[in-house]
Design brief:
The protein has 9 helices and 12 strands. It is of the alpha/beta class. It has one domain: TIM Barrel, CATH 3.20.20. The strands form 4 sheets. The chain has a 5-stranded parallel beta sheet. α4 packs parallel to α5 and α5 packs across α7. The longest helix has 17 residues. The chain is globular, with a radius of gyration of 17 Å. The protein starts with a strand and ends with a helix. The mean pLDDT is 96. Bound molecules: zinc ion (2 copies). One zinc ion binds next to loops. The site of one zinc ion (ZN) has 6 residues, from loops.
Amino acid sequence: MIKTNWHTHTKRCGHATGEDEEYVLAAIQGDLKTLGFSDHAAYPTPQPYERMDISEVPDYISSIRSLQEKYKDQIRIHLGMEVEYYPEQWETLSEYRRTLDYLILGQHNVYFDRVSVYSINDGDTLHRYVDMLEKACERNLCDYIAHPDVALYRYQRLDGSVRECAARIADISLKYNMPLELNAGSGVQRGMYQFADGPRYPYPTRVFFEEFARKKCPVIIGLDVHDPRRFLDDTALNRALSVISDLDCYVLEDFDLVKAAEKRKKEFR
Ligand SMILES: [Zn+2]
Ligand SMILES: [Zn+2]
């Protein structure tokens, strides 16, 4: 098991299980040294996906902060969120940027109220998804890009546009020194899917990581945990690693995302 995980949810999102403290105890048992909570960001209205209600944010903050204190001799706990680049939600996002230790970018809709990344199957829309990642980095909204390949979830053929988008994301990563996540969450947990051009995991996707490896982009492994038991089971992690097994990826281990966030926050706009 890895020693650092920045991608952890809580049951507030509606599709995770277990109490906050159970995540901490399982992480300690799994011998993690750093545990970052990054539950799905809440927005005032409407709510594009399963996520906590905005009224639950204070409880999320106080619960994780008190666990941080309670277990400080056993594990470093940090408080973040998984946000999207939604310019119309900038006031809310600014507040999260200011008050939380770090933010990861998990773009689940291309636009706030439409175009789910789980529905994309054409090159133009895939490019619009990458546009949003680029804008988020430009404005220093985030400290790493979670599952950069999530938009391939229903993409039937790994065509030229997929390569182009992988290359664009790699260039964004280099330009902004932005780590890209190898996600060991639901994309591998559910097993391989049959796509029009053959079987593969919905994500992570090898084509993307070929490009990331070629350009030496920084990669961080994220478990995307929605169940505390995941800290005690390497199955999904090993599947994600199998996708990049013979690639020379530049994987950052135990990277201090909070320190990186302190710098980026000053450039946030
Ligand atoms: Zn989730
Ligand atoms: Zn997540």
